[in-house]
Amino acid sequence: KAGVTQTPRYLIKTRGQQVTLSCSPISGHRSVSWYQQTPGQGLQFLFEYFSETQRNKGNFPGRFSGRQFSNSRSEMNVSTLELGDSALYLCASSPGLGTDTQYFGPGTRLTVL
Amino acid sequence: GENVEQHPSTLSVQEGDSAVIKCTYSDSASNYFPWYKQELGKGPQLIIDIRSNVGEKKDQRIAVTLNKTAKHFSLHITETQPEDSAVYFCAAQEGSYIPTFGRGTSLIVHP
Description:
- The complex is a heterodimer of chains A (113) and B (111).
- With 113 residues, chain A is mostly beta strands.
- The termini of chain A are far apart.
- In chain A, the strands form two sheets. In chain A, strands 2, 4, 5, 6, 9, 10 and 11 form a seven-stranded mixed β-sheet that branches. A four-stranded antiparallel β-sheet of chain A has the order 1-3-8-7, with no helix packed on it.
- The model of chain A has no long low-confidence stretch (mean pLDDT 93).
- Chain A has no helices and eleven strands.
- By secondary structure, chain B is an all-beta fold.
- In chain B, strands 2, 4, 5, 9, 10 and 11 form a six-stranded mixed β-sheet that branches.
- Chains A and B meet through strand 5, strand 9 and strand 10 of A and strand 4 and strand 5 of B.
């Protein structure tokens, strides 16, 4: 099976812009989670989607949002970008509710100038 | 909520030596403990995991031990090789809830 794929792999944006990141989970996986990874804060949970519904949300401002489509693909959006949003954004998928192991994609490296 | 402490933050060993990374967790409800390896430019990859009904699990050169009473678990890598150099993350999780990750250990294996 193909792994989790994320597009684009690299992005450079300027402050105030918005960005949309995409994630395609492993075939058959219905749960998608998003994480922000920075050297200072480590892996921080953003949100989790299952069957197009947000199931959990981390402690991030409302500028961070996401959605999941009927084919389980997911997007996350960050509006009004700030310098501190520069990070590696990771998507992870798992088969679904009641399952635990998460499988990560390669990430999208976002740089905000 | 859950809190996971991971030590050391950096570990430097010679090729062929063993490496041990330790994690402690706070929530006794956690029952699933995965370990991830992240190489430069890549996402974390699951290398081994253990559930709370098991005390030890081994997969070739990698082993994980769990002490539920003390709330700590450890990753053991034997006969380290340069390709083991990476950042390793532990995590603690209750069932299908969101995992809490440790801050990571940068393992450097010198040839």
